[in-house]
Amino acid sequence: MSVWAVVVAAGRGERAGLGENKVLHRYGGVSVLSRTLRALQKSALFDGCVLVLAARDRDACEAVFRQEGICPLVRAIAEGGQTRQASVLNGLKALPEDCEIVAIHDAARPFVSEDILARSIELARQTGSGVACAPVVDTVKEVGEDGGVKTLDRSRLRAAQTPQTFRRAEIVRAAQEAEKNGWLATDDADLYERCWGRVTLFTAPDSPANIKLTTREDFMRGESAFRVGTGFDAHRLVEGRKLVLCGVEVPCARGLDGHSDADVAVHALMDAMLGALGLGDIGRHFPDSDEAFRGVSSMLLLAQVMRMMEERGWRVANADVTIVAQRPKLAPYIGTMRANIAEALGVAEDCANVKATTTERLGYEGREEGISAQAVVLLAKGCA
Ligand code: CTP
Ligand code: MG
Q1: Where does a domain end: 165, 196, 222?
Q2: Phi, psi for residue 52 in degrees, rounded to 5
C-alpha cells in the first residue's frame, strides 16, 4: 500500500504576470517546481509522484529538468486540463493500483513543510481526508448582490491550502462524480465533501508559510531579506593525512591536520553561514573535544549547518570560497569541488564558486606549512 503525490503544475500563472508559467520561474537558480518536488522528496513520505504538466510547457519543462535534474520521485507525467480540477483528475487517473493514499499538491507551494505533509497523510489514513488550512488573518466581509455587507466570524474561517490528502479510492470516486454531474470546484476538498459528506481540515504552526505563489508581489516578497557572512580557516599540512578540500580527496603526499577531516574550505564556508545566521562559529557547534566529530566528513557537518539555516527560513543565495595553497595544483579538481558545494547548498552551480590561489610563496601557505580558506555567503529569504 503506497502513498503518492499528484503535483499540479499545468496552470498559466496569469496573476503572477511573469510571462511564463510561474512554477517554471527560477529564483536562486532553481525553479518553483523543482523546489516543490524536492520538498516532497526530502520528506521521505512518498513512494512516487505524478506530475501534471501542460503540453504547451513541455519544451520549457524539459529545459528546466535538463538543468536542475528531474526529481527521482516523479514516476509519471500526466497531461494538464483546462481547469485545475481537470488537471487533478488526469493526475489521479495516472496513479498505480496499489496507491492507497494520495496527496494533491500545488506546484506553486514550494514552502510546504514536512510536518504539514505528515499530518495530512496521517489524517487521510485515519479519516479519509486531511486538508491543510491556514487561519484567516484578515476580517472577511461578504458583499451581497444588493451591496449589503455581512462580517463573517473570523475564528470560524479557514483558508484552504494544499496538500489535500485523501484515500485514493474515495477521491477518485468524488472526481468521477464531479465529472459526471458537472460539479465545479476550486479545490479537491469541495468535491470530496459533496461526495462523502465531511472533510477533515487541520492547521499547523507553519501553515502561514505554506503560501501559494500567486501574484507578482508574492514573488517579490522577501526581496530585502538578505544576510551576509564571512568565514576563514587554516590548517597545518602534515604527513600521514588525506588532503580533503570541498569534499574532494586531492592526491597529495601530505594532508591537513585536524579533528575532523580538516576540510578547511568547508570549514570556512560553514563559518560564513553560521556568521550570517548569527549563530557563532563551528567551534561552538562541533567542538574538537567531542569524539563524535573525530575524522568526520565536513560535508556531513555542512548538511547540519544547512538544516539549522532551513529551520530559520533561510536559503543560500550564493557562496564564494577561496582556497589559498601553494601546492598541490588544485585547478583539475575545482569543477568537482564546485559541483559538491552547489549540491550541498541546494543552489545552481553558478551560485557556488570555488577558486584557488597561491601567495607567490609568501607566508605559511607559500612555505607549504598549511592551507587556508576564506568564504563569503549570502543568505536569502522567500523568493528574493
Ligand atoms: N493548475 C493546473 N491546471 C490548471 C490550472 C492550475 O495544474 N488548469 C495548477 C497550477 O499550476 C498551480 C495550482 O494548480 O500549481 C494552483 O493554481 P493557481 O495558483 O490558480 O495557478 P495558475 O492557474 O497557474 O495561476 P493563475 O490562476 O493566476 O493563472
Ligand atoms: Mg488558476
Answers
A1: 222
A2: -105, 120
Residue 192 C-alpha to ligand 1 middle, in angstroms? 19
- Ligand in closest contact with the CA of 15: 1
| Residue finishing a domain among 194, 222, 250 | 222
Q: What residues form DSSP beta bridges with 357?
A: 324
Cis? peptide before 208, omega within 30° of 0: no
Atom of ligand 1 minimally distant from the CA of 107:
15
List ligand 1's pocket residues with C-beta within 6 A: 8-15, 22-23, 52, 80-84, 87, 106-108, 212, 214
The residue range of the domain holding 274 is 226-381
Q: What are phi and psi of 145, to 5 degrees?
A: -60, -30
Could you give the angle at the alpha carbon of 285 between the alpha carbons of 283 and 289, nearest 5°? 60
Task: Give pLDDT tens digits for 160-207.
Answer: 999 999 999 999 999 999 999 999 998 999 999 999 999 999 999 999
Among residues 259, 138, 137, which one has the least CA distance to residue 208? 137
| Cα 344 to chain centroid, rounded | 12
Among candidate residues 68, 49, 69, the one with its CA nearest the CA of residue 2: 49
Q: Do 20 and 40 reside in the same domain of the chain?
A: yes
In which residue ranges of the chain is pLDDT below 70?
A: 221-224, 382-384
Whole-number Å distance between alpha carbons of 154 and 220? 28
Looking at this protein, which amino acid is placed at residue 57? D
- 215 and 250 together in one domain: no
d(Cα 6, Cα 375) in Å, to the nearest integer? 40
> What pLDDT score does 383 carry?
67
- Atom 26, ligand 1: which residue's CA is nearest? 13
Query: Which H or E run includes 308?
Result: helix 298-311
* 18 and 165 inside one domain: yes
- Closest residue (by CA) to atom 6 of ligand 1? 11
Instruction: Tell me, in angstroms, the distance from the centre of ligand 1 to residue 54's CA.
Output: 11
